[in-house]
Please model this.
Amino acid sequence: MNSVASIFDAFPVDKVRRDFPILSSNVHGKPLVYLDNAASNQKPKPVLDAIQDYYTAQHSNVHRGVHFLSGLATEKYEEARIKVRNYINAGSENEIIFVRGATEAINLAAAVFGKKNLEQGDEVLITELEHHSNIVPWQMICEEKGARLRVAPINDSGEVMLDKFESMLTSNVKIAAISHVSNALGTVNPVKQMIEMAHRKKIPVLVDGAQAMPHLRVDVRDLDADFYVFSSHKVFGPTGIGVLYGKAQLLESLPPYQGGGDMIKSVTFEKTVFNDIPYKFEAGTPHIEGAVGLGAAIDYLNSFDWRIVQDYEQALLKFAEKEISKIDGLKIIGTAKEKAGVISFVMEDIHPHDVGTILDSEGIAIRTGHHCAQPVMERFGIPATARASFAFYNTREEIHALVQSIQKVKEIFAHV
Amino acid sequence: MSDLKALYQEVILDHNKNPRNFKKLEDADYSVEGYNPLCGDHYTVYLKMKGDVISEITFIGSGCAISKASASVMSTVLKGKTLTEVESLFNEFHHLVRGEIKDDVSIEKLGKLAAFGGISEFPVRVKCAILPWHTMKNAIDKKNETVSTE
Ligand SMILES: Cc1ncc(COP(=O)(O)O)c(C=O)c1O
Model:
């Protein structure tokens, strides 16, 4: 076990920060302290350059032209797919479907899986920790099919109760959908174990990896996930693109999502022959520069030794938890044993929005509200929290700035 | 920094900590809920009328300092006002928090409400300040409806 000091020394955070132009900007005349990474993280120079280069010298439409630029754009787009495949260790690039983001990936999976496999009386199992985007699409397809949405509860620390989860995996359950890391509390779910439980009952599992991908190295085959989804903008890539990974056999068994160009082999007015996966699920001109930017983000992430990154992030999270919990009248919500990247908190008699506004005036960006996870807020009997969320480019100095500014919030409110 | 002081003025901090008329009104003529789903601010405003004068106004609920102080100050200001006066205060308050009243004389005329002038520098917080006013207005408009259909 390395000492904490050597863990901090091993990661060249100052150098890394220089890769992210926005991190040296000022907000309200103060240096930006960006602690809203769970909402969206910032972009390194190689990602910005890749998008610029793409439009400067490589752009046309994909999969349709015989000319040079169309070939080049197609190559760049498909190269990005291979980068994603390698990054999450999928079995084949055909299992990587480009979508708008985690939300669209879940909607796609829920719609086509539900269309094929859900019937009256069936169940879909989720957990109490989910983001609205891993609740509502399932609710919609359940309603359409007369199926039932069941919810595995969490305990007071914000961990899924595994015995309950397991006992709810009955023969009625046709699919389980679980988050890898909770955006509201930072809980890391033991998804590998949960997938094993489900597979023992022959139930496939969709994993919402939106908050896991920026903090963990994910291997979809090691997890044995049937679907795995994430958003590019939470892994230092551009907005508007994300990934639905699905096992080839599963994807092949499912009907298409949207109809249009690219998803067909041949069209006559009598009959359309659908394309093979992944194209069957990618109707229309895709977000080409988004894929290129995501590919560049993956290259950038591959330039790090991830053991060092993860040790640094864990050390920073522990440091932040220790410093923040010293503040009188502050309570951390979500105290799971395994956490990543997130500290949600409430303050006695001070509403999270007031905390957020005062921190903003100090240049500190945090998120306040229900974090698109109203059921989690309800579970803890609070309307909202303030949430500081970290990326590997955050520093101990920034945590100090956060703590000092929270003290200032208290001073302002202690004034009367 | 001075902006922040302008936002969290004494009056606002005081009314947040010790909200006035912070109770349910059992014999209210009207009670209306106001909810801001984005931030979870949630209030119920109670009104008792004598003719077209507000004889009692109270509220309960929870939310940020700005919304709570706004509800509290509103309740102290509107008690005893006629509906016409309420209408014009409603409009003036909106102009104030949107930074549309510039001259000091006009601001001073608003009395305690003037404390909310600093909010115009914080556009995302304007909705907090006006939530209680819209809630109150809904109650009154419903009353007008009732009156006109009688
Ligand atoms: C856990 C989780 N799932 C899904 C999403 C949805 O991601 P997007 O809005 O990029 O589609 C988010 C985003 O906040 C999230 O945190």
